[in-house]
Design a protein that fits this description.
The protein is an all-alpha fold. The chain is built from 14 helices and no strands.
């Protein structure tokens, strides 16, 4: 019993840490944009940094790079969902403020619970439903707390769609074939396929371009964070499941908005504070 609680506690820490690192992405991605990047090539450049490093780590730890065909196909499918999520979310940053884009993206816990119930017969507990309602309420409040920024009407549906696609990504990470996959191998294949998809799209769209020195430095930091997030997220879902993980990940828009306020000049208001309280409360309740 105690061991189960310990594993759950570790899973919560893994997911919250991953969410916090992901919350820094809007700042990192917009910095890369300002230094020659494009939303179609972000995952390509991340892969350039991550894939060789993870391959070296696998060789150093004598981890076999061979995986089953079923696992290989699952990794490719999951990577496609992650790539599509990234393209949608990163493109929305150019249309609306990063705070609004991230909070709209994080309406995805609703999709996770619905898809989980329909596809995997996962019945949400009463506590998770209450936390979900608090989470959604907080996100709705936060969506109106960044007035005065970029307000392109196309940005909002794109950000919402990125959340729906991300729900599929989260649910697929929880399947047995992926849960049994060693974390380093999972990270290697996910970012390898992401790099392939991003390279194909960038080449087709003519968006493969060089970055400035600052752009490459920020991209290296972003890639390191993304690799760590992939490992933490997979381990966290192993311990606490996809539904609880999806609710805990609402810490990400909180971090994102705080970064926007501190580093990007986005406004702070009473409405913002109310949204923060709702999101924090939902996170605390689901962690108990």
């Amino acid at each position: 019993m105690g061991n189960g609680k310990s594993e759950r506690r570790k899973g919560i820490i893994y997911i919250l840490t991953a969410a916090g690192l992901n919350g820094l992405l809007p700042l990192l991605v917009t910095t890369v944009y300002d230094n020659g990047g494009h939303f179609t090539n972000i995952m390509l450049y991340k892969g350039v940094f991550i894939v060789p490093v993870v391959w070296i780590l696998c060789r150093a730890k004598r981890v076999s790079m061979h995986i089953e065909r079923k696992q290989n196909m699952a990794c490719a499918f999951i990577a496609f969902f992650q790539f599509l999520t990234s393209v949608l979310l990163y493109s929305s940053y150019a249309l609306i403020s990063t705070g609004i884009a991230t909070t709209l993206h994080f309406m995805y816990p609703v999709a996770v619970l619905i898809f989980g119930a329909i596809l995997f017969h996962e019945v949400p507990q009463r506590k998770e439903i209450v936390c979900l309602l608090l989470c959604v309420g907080g996100i709705v409040i936060l969506c109106g707390s960044n007035e005065g920024g970029k307000q392109n009407v196309l940005g909002m549906p794109i950000a919402l769609l990125s959340g729906a696609v991300y729900a599929g990504y989260i649910l697929m990470i929880g399947i047995r074939a992926i849960r049994e996959l060693q974390s380093l191998l999972f990270t290697f294949y996910i970012f390898f396929y992401n790099m392939v998809f991003s390279g194909m799209v960038s080449f087709t769209c003519g968006t493969i371009r060089g970055l400035t020195g600052t752009g490459w430095a920020v991209m290296a930091v972003s890639a390191l964070a993304a690799g760590l997030v992939a490992v933490l997220f997979q381990r966290g879902i192993k311990n606490i499941g996809s539904q609880t993980a999806s609710i805990l990940c609402v810490a990400e828009p909180l971090v994102s908005i705080l970064v926007g306020v501190i580093f990007m000049g986005e406004p702070f208001s009473v409405r913002f504070g109310c949204g923060v309280i709702c999101v924090l409360l939902s996170t605390v309740l689901v962690s108990r």
